[in-house]
């Protein structure tokens, strides 16, 4: 392979000819610029440089395979690295010594967002905090927790409380878990392994995103290494969030990889046949494109990174959806056969689909609107849970029901459990905690949620989670707003 001088690479620094170095290889990415799901501007900023570090903030190095055939044009002459254009990095800073408050000063979830906002690159904060369209689905998520009130019982000897709960047969110290979020490398240099470290230290389960910065194998390896270093094994388990590739062969291949790694369940995201309109990301991409002299930018975001590995199977086309848009309920038959383990459908948003999932024999459903990042004015998980309670209560207890979206207080977990949920997923609070403080922040965030949860249990009058009952909450505000669907008229 040709050896190329850094000075020569540095000359190819425009949209008409864009070369970058990745892992000592030189790539001509000019024809890929407009196909990059994250937008052309991100690559163009790296033109003529060694982009390895920046690339690894978002993708496993293996993702170079998505580049069109013929992009690889040679190896960089190591003696000429100094001749490359100077790299512009947007790696998040490491918290220590940056004037952040000590993690123990974070006493509630919103404190982690304040800390993260102060330290994260603007773009990373926009990625984490953004939502779809005018942000109303996210707002509903946050608001609906407050629309349910407790009905506490008193004088019940609440000296000791037990917060343990099993998820898909795997016991956890708590009834909440870390929700899958893509591209953690944009949030902390340690990316997913750093989150895993925090999870293991506290014994909380975690669902790993297909769109992770590190590969499924690397993340599981970090989990195994961390567990090996402990005298007592942590109860933490890793589950895998699955964005199904469009190509069936690639879809099966990915499931085999995930299974071999030892992930405990497949959480298939079903609320993203196309990517929602992430308004803040779109605005930022447009700004970045203009800054490098490009006017037209496609919609995209880092979260689609997980699909990049499968782009060749899609004719090299950049896609904006994570789940294959062609997926139907019938596909569950072959998926179950291939996976041969627990399956959760992530993103159920009405009682009809919850009932269908039960009829299809699915192990669990996650009521979720993707943290308000997909459909505009989607229902909150709590509203969907109330629908299930009203229209198909018979499925409660027959399958595991998870909820996520907008949870910012540990005691609110109890509301979901009273209404029949198995456990609650927590997303952004952990992402912000990771961004500000790394694994220590993740640990602190667990502590904050657990303290609120345990206090909440005592004040509600329960000592174990199986004592939680629908009578312990007043959900009339949500019930009054609930739609009476045609499909369940006979049940009213
Ligand atoms: C920055 C970010 C990235 C996300 N990435 C994914 C993803 O890759 N796959 C997925 O199924 N859900 C993803 N989600 C949705 C979360 O799994 C979860 O549904 C949501 O964050 C819960 O809402 P909360 O952040 O208000 O707790 C993401 C959410 C955020 C905030």
TrEMBL record:
Residues 101-478 form the FMN hydroxy acid dehydrogenase domain. The keyword Lipid metabolism does not apply. One of its GO terms (molecular function) is metal ion binding. Pfam families: Cyt-b5, FMN_dh. InterPro entries: Aldolase_TIM, Cyt_B5-like_heme/steroid-bd, Cyt_B5-like_heme/steroid_sf, Cyt_B5_heme-BS, FMN-dep_DH, FMN_HAD, FMN_hydac_DH_AS, L-MDH/L-LDH_FMN-bd. Its cofactor is FMN. Residues 1-77 form the Cytochrome b5 heme-binding domain. SMART domains: Cyt-b5 (SM01117). Keywords: Heme, Iron, Metal-binding, Oxidoreductase. The keyword Nucleus does not apply. CDD domains: FCB2_FMN. It comes from the Eukaryota. Belongs to the cytochrome b5 family. This is Uncharacterized protein. The lineage of its organism: Eukaryota, Fungi, Dikarya, Ascomycota, Pezizomycotina.
């Amino acid at each position: 392979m040709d050896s190329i001088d850094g000075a020569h690479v540095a000359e190819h620094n425009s949209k008409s000819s864009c070369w970058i170095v990745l892992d000592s290889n030189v790539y001509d990415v000019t024809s890929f610029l407009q196909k990059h799901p994250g937008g052309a501007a991100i690559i163009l900023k790296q033109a003529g440089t060694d982009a390895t570090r920046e690339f690894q903030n978002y993708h496993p190095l293996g993702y170079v395979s998505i580049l069109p055939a013929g992009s690889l044009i040679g190896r960089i002459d190591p003696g000429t690295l100094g001749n490359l254009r100077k790299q512009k990095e947007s790696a998040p800073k490491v918290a220590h010594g940056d004037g952040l408050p000590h993690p123990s000063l974070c006493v509630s979830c919103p404190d982690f967002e304040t800390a993260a906002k102060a330290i994260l690159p603007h773009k990373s904060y926009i990625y984490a905090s953004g939502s779809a369209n005018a942000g109303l689905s996210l707002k509903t998520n946050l608001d609906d927790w407050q629309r349910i009130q407790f009905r506490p019982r008193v004088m019940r000897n609440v000296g000791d409380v037990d917060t343990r709960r099993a998820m898909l047969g795997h016991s956890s110290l708590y009834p909440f878990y870390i929700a899958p979020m893509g591209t953690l490398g944009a949030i902390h240099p340690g990316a997913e392994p750093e989150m895993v470290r925090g999870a293991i230290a506290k014994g909380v389960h975690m669902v790993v995103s297909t769109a992770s910065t590190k590969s499924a194998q690397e993340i599981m390896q970090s989990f195994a290494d961390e567990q090996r270093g402990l005298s007592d094994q942590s109860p933490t388990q890793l589950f895998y969030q699955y964005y199904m590739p469009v190509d069936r062969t690639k879809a099966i291949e990915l499931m085999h990889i995930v299974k071999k790694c030892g992930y405990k369940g497949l959480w298939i995201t079903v609320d993203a046949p196309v990517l929602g309109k992430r308004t803040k990301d779109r605005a930022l991409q447009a700004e970045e494109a203009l800054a490098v002299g490009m006017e037209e930018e496609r919609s995209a975001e880092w979260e689609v990174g997980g699909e990049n590995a499968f782009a060749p199977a899609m004719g090299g086309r950049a896609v904006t959806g994570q789940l294959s848009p062609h997926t139907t309920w019938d596909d569950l038959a072959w998926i179950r056969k291939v996976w041969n383990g627990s399956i959760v459908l992530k993103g159920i948003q009405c009682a009809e689909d919850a009932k269908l999932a039960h009829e299809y024999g699915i192990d669990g459903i996650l009521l979720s609107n993707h943290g308000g990042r997909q459909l505009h004015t989607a229902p909150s998980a709590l509203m969907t849970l109330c629908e299930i309670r009203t229209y198909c209560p018979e499925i409660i207890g027959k399958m595991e029901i998870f909820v996520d979206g907008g949870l910012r207080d540990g005691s609110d977990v109890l509301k979901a459990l009273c209404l029949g949920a198995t456990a609650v997923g927590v997303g952004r609070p952990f992402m912000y905690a990771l961004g500000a403080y790394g694994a220590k922040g993740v640990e602190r965030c667990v502590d904050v949620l657990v303290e609120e949860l345990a206090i909440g249990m005592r004040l509600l009058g329960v000592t174990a989670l199986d004592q939680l009952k629908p009578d312990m909450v007043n959900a009339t505000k949500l019930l009054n707003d609930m739609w009476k669907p045609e499909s369940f008229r006979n049940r009213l």
